[in-house]
Specification:
alpha/beta; TIM Barrel; uronate isomerase, domain 2, chain A; 2 domains; five-stranded parallel β-sheet; three-stranded parallel β-sheet; 19 helices
C-alpha cells in the first residue's frame, strides 16, 4: 500500500510515474490567470504568520470551516492569527476526500518541508515552524514564486486600475513576468442601472473624459485597453453567469444605453441585448490588439444575502449555476468569426454538465490559423479538483485535441497555491500512463513526452 503523499502520489502505474518524474515535474509554471495581489509582488511582501498567507482571502478554506461548525469569528472575524490557524488545523482532519486535504499537505511539504499531518495535535508545532520559515528571504513573495519556478503570472485587473504596481514590478530586478489582465465586468452590468452608472462615474474620474453616448464609452474603453497594452497586458477576462442572446428585432443599443444612463432599469431581454453588443465590441478591440480573451461562465454568486451584507463579495457564498450556455456563446463567437475578428479564446465552464457543450463549442470556431485557437479551458473553481480535472481532460480528449491544450492555472489569491500545477500534472500523467498500460495508447516515449510537456508548459508559452 503506497504511503500518503509519497513521491508517486496519484501515479498509479509505472508509465505514469515515468512520465511525471522524467517529463513534467521540473517544468516551469505559466500561471496565466490568478488573483494574486500585484501590490504584494511589487513590495516583495513578507508574511508575519502562516495565517496571513494561507487563510486570508481563501474562501475554499472558509467554506470548509463553516461546514465543520467553526464560528465566523475564527474565519473572517476578530480572532488572532494563531486562533484562526488552530481552528483550521482542527478542521483539516475532517476534510478527507475534499481536495483541501491534498492541497493543505502538498503546500506544507513543498513550501515548508513539513511531513506531519495537520491536526489539532500538531497545530502548535506546525504554526511555529511555518512562521519561522516565513521570516527567511526564501519565503518572501519573490522567494516563494522563484522556488516554484514560476515564469509568468497573469493578474486580474479592473480597467480603472492605474497599474502602478505592475510598472514597479516591470522596473524591478524580478525576472518573473507579472502582466495585467483586463477584467471589465462592471462595464457590462446592464441589468443594474445604479451599478452601471456608478462604474461609468469611476471610469470618467480615472480618465478625465465624459461619457454621453455609447460611442463615448467605446472610445474610453479603447483608451484603457491601449493603456493596459502599453503596460504588458495581453489577456482579457470576463466572469459572467452566461452570455445573453441578442434580440433580432433591430433594437438600437445606443437608445438602450441612453435609457440606462438616465437611471432607468431595462427589461431583462433589452439589458441582455445591450450587454451582448458591449461585449462584442470589446472582443473586437481585443482582436485588434492581438490579445487572448477568456470567458469564465456559470457561477451563481453571492447567494447568501445576509452574509453578503456582512462580509461582501468573494467570501465563500458562491455556487455552480445552471444557466443555459450554448445559444449566447455560439452567437458571440459566430458574430466575431463572421467578420474575422475572433481572437484567441479560452472558455471555462463551472457546471460540469456543460463539459461536452464547451468542448464542442470550442471546436466550432477553430479555423486552422492558430493551433488550438479556441480553447476548452482547465477545470475551474469548484472543478479544479481530481475528479473535475479528469472529466475536463476526458471531455477535451473525446471532443477535441488534448495535444493543443494550454493546461492548468491557479485562479488563486494565495502565494502558496502553486502545488496545484503539480497536482494537475500528476493527474494528467496518471491518465496517460493508464491508457498506455491498457494498450489504448502506444508506449512511444518521444510522442508521450511531447504531449506531456506541451500540456504542462510549452503550449501555453507558445499560445500566450
Amino acid at each position: 500500500m503506497p504511503s500518503f503523499l509519497s513521491p508517486d502520489f496519484l501515479l498509479q502505474t509505472p508509465t505514469a510515474r515515468r512520465l511525471f518524474h522524467n517529463h513534467a515535474a521540473d517544468l516551469p509554471i505559466i500561471d496565466y490567470h490568478c488573483h494574486l495581489s500585484p501590490a504584494d509582488i511589487a513590495s516583495n511582501r513578507s508574511f508575519k504568520t502562516i495565517t496571513e498567507i494561507w487563510l486570508e482571502g481563501d474562501h475554499y478554506k472558509w467554506r470548509a470551516m463553516r461546514a465543520f461548525g467553526i464560528p465566523e469569528e475564527y474565519i473572517t472575524g476578530s480572532a488572532s492569527d494563531e486562533e484562526k490557524f488552530k481552528k483550521w488545523a482542527e478542521t483539516v482532519p475532517h476534510t478527507l476526500r475534499n481536495p483541501l486535504y491534498h492541497w493543505t499537505h502538498l503546500e506544507l511539504q513543498r513550501y515548508f518541508g513539513i511531513q506531519d499531518l495537520l491536526s489539532e495535535k500538531t497545530a502548535d508545532s506546525i504554526y511555529n515552524a511555518c512562521n519561522d520559515k516565513l521570516q527567511q528571504p526564501t519565503h518572501s513573495v519573490h522567494g516563494l514564486l522563484t522556488g516554484m519556478k514560476v515564469e509568468m503570472i497573469g493578474t486580474t485587473d479592473d480597467p480603472t486600475d492605474g497599474l502602478e504596481y505592475h510598472k514597479a514590478i516591470a522596473s524591478s530586478t524580478l525576472e518573473i513576468k507579472v502582466l495585467p489582465s483586463f477584467r471589465p465586468d462592471p462595464a457590462l452590468a446592464t441589468h443594474d442601472a445604479p451599478a452601471f452608472n456608478n462604474y461609468l462615474n469611476r471610469l470618467t474620474t480615472v480618465t478625465g473624459k465624459s461619457v454621453h453616448t455609447l460611442d463615448d464609452l467605446f472610445q474610453l474603453l479603447r483608451d484603457r485597453i491601449d493603456y493596459f497594452h502599453d503596460n504588458g497586458c495581453r489577456l482579457s477576462d470576463h466572469g459572467l453567469e452566461y452570455i445573453p442572446v441578442p434580440l433580432s428585432n433591430g433594437t438600437d443599443p445606443a437608445q438602450l444605453f441612453q435609457l440606462l444612463t438616465e437611471g432607468k432599469n431595462l427589461p431583462p431581454d433589452e439589458a441582455g441585448h445591450l450587454k451582448f453588443f458591449l461585449l462584442t465590441e470589446l472582443c473586437r478591440m481585443y482582436h485588434a490588439k492581438g490579445w487572448t480573451q477568456q470567458f469564465h461562465l456559470g457561477a451563481l454568486r453571492n447567494n447568501n444575502t445576509r452574509m453578503m451584507k456582512k462580509l461582501g463579495a468573494n467570501t465563500g457564498y458562491d455556487s455552480i449555476g445552471d444557466f443555459r450556455q450554448a445559444p449566447g456563446l455560439a452567437a458571440l463567437l459566430d458574430a466575431l468569426d463572421s467578420t474575422d475578428q475572433l481572437t484567441r479564446t479560452i472558455l471555462y465552464n463551472l457546471n460540469p454538465a456543460d463539459n461536452e457543450l464547451f468542448a464542442t463549442m470550442a471546436g466550432n470556431f477553430n479555423d486552422g490559423t492558430i493551433r488550438g485557437k479556441v480553447q476548452y479551458g482547465s477545470g475551474w473553481w469548484f472543478l479544479d479538483q481530481k475528479d473535475g480535472m479528469e472529466k475536463q481532460l476526458n471531455s477535451l480528449s473525446n471532443m477535441g485535441l488534448l495535444s493543443t491544450f494550454i493546461g492548468m492555472l491557479t485562479d488563486s489569491r494565495s502565494f502558496l497555491s502553486y502545488p496545484r500545477h503539480e497536482y494537475f500534472r500528476r493527474i494528467l500523467c496518471n491518465l496517460i500512463g493508464r491508457d498506455v498500460e491498457n494498450g489504448e495508447l502506444p508506449n512511444d516515449e518521444e510522442m508521450l513526452s511531447e504531449l506531456i510537456r506541451g500540456v504542462c508548459y510549452e503550449n501555453a508559452k507558445r499560445y500566450l
